[in-house]
Structure formats: structure tokens, C-alpha cells
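User: Predict the complex with 2-phosphoglycolic acid.
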Amino acid sequence: MKNLARKALKKNMNKLVAANIKMNILTLAERERYFASLKEEFRKRKVENVEIVLCPPFVHVESFKKNIKMKNFFVGVQNIFQEEKGPFTGEVSAPMAKSAGADYVILGHSDRRKYFHDTDEQINRKIILALKSGLTPIVCIGENAGEKKSGKGEEAVFRQLKGCFKNINSVQMEKIIVCYEPVWAISTNNPDHLPTSNEIMTAKLLMKKFIVDNFGAKLVEKVRIIYGGSVSSANVEESCVDSAMDGALVGKESLAPFQFAKIAEAIGKN
Ligand code: PGA
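Assistant: Here is the predicted structure with 2-phosphoglycolic acid placed in the model:
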């Protein structure tokens, strides 16, 4: 089963490994050190068939774009606002992110849902604006601990899929990357808080079913579905490779280029 799943994946497209740097890299000096270490680690390794998407805080976007000029490397942002311009103090819109050098945007992350109360409706609006500006959305979908405990995980995943992808057409859907990110598995040091490869694959199949039902069978092989939640070089085989995911969204370990490059290498190899 595992081999079959891997083979099926191989026929597909490039995998994608995204770094969700979150609110880290506090100074320009730290940023320089990050660039140097990232370049060194990726030069040492053979990372093939993988798109690497680095998503720093907005203030670093231009500099990431200018400084990381390696093959298959892209820059993304961690959010955009649900309007394009106007009196929205403190916000950044899709065209601004694009013109600063971003090609991707993480949307619907659980930090955003938790601290900024992003709703599926707003995420839907952001997806539409991102696509309009030429940004590829990486849309996070996943149940929280309470939903999982009460047996409502699947329901939560479907609800988010339905809300986030409302009125999205097949042409738009083909460009979207869906990230299964169970909220209870994010940034945990407890191995018992990690889903098994079977659980991750089951979530992927659920998402595929949603895509088939809403966009047709042809599209399903074109939409990349990645996994996020405490991905590390130690668990990448189980969390992303055995579960036949199309890549990973990496938080904490993306701050350590040595680990991040190892994750990307493992995903590209399989
Ligand atoms: P983590 O973060 O890898 O630290 O769990 C992933 C994320 O929040 O996107």
C-alpha cells in the first residue's frame, strides 16, 4: 500500500515544502545569519523535485526575495487582508504582497483563526483576492483538539473545506494548495500528539473526496495536498512520506535550516 501510494505520487507534480516562519527573525542581523545558514544547508544536500516556499513576516519579504536566489525557491506571506486597499490600518493586501516579491500566501492558519478570529468566509474572500493577484494560496484546514475528542473531526474538516472554497471554480481550485493541519498537532513536543500516517492519509482521502464531489474527478490529481503539524526531520517519513502527502508546511523546524533542508530532502526523494 505504502509503495503504491508513493508511486502514484511520483507520477504527479513537484512536491512543495513551505516554511511558516511565523513571528520570528527579529533583527536584520538574525536575518543575515538565517540566509547564510539556509544557503549552506541547501547547497550541501540534494533537494530535488521540491518547490521550497519561505514565508517570513511581511517586513522581510523583499529581502528574502532578493537574497535567496536558489533554484525552486519562492517567497510567500503568512496572511493578507480581505480587501485590496483602503483605510485598514496595519493591514497588507494581496497586490502589495505580490509586488514585494511573494508568490504564495498561507491562509486560514489556526493562529489566524485563534488570535485574529479569521472565519471561513473571510478566508474564502482572501483566497479569491490572492488568486486575482497571482498569489498561490496554501489553505490550512484541520480540526482542533475538542472536535477530535468529540468525534467531530471529519465534520470540522468538511465544514472548513465548504466554507473556504465556496464559489471557487475548477480553474481556481487547480491552483490552490490544501494543507491538512490538525490544530492539536501543531508545535507539540509530545510524540503522542502526532497523527499517524494512516490518520493523515485518511484526512487526505477526505479532502480528495470533497474535491471530486465539488470539482470533478479530473481535478483531484492536480490539487496538491500537504501536511502540517510538528513536521521534523525525525518524523517526516511517517508524517509526509508514508502518508503520501504532496509536501509539508513546517513551522518550528523551518527556523533551523539544518533540519529544514533535511525535511525537504526526504520529501523530494520519495
Ligand atoms: P509546527 O508549525 O511545525 O511548529 O507545528 C506548523 C504550523 O503552524 O504551520
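Residues 20, 181, 186-187, 228-231, 249-252 surround 2-phosphoglycolic acid (CB under 6 Å).
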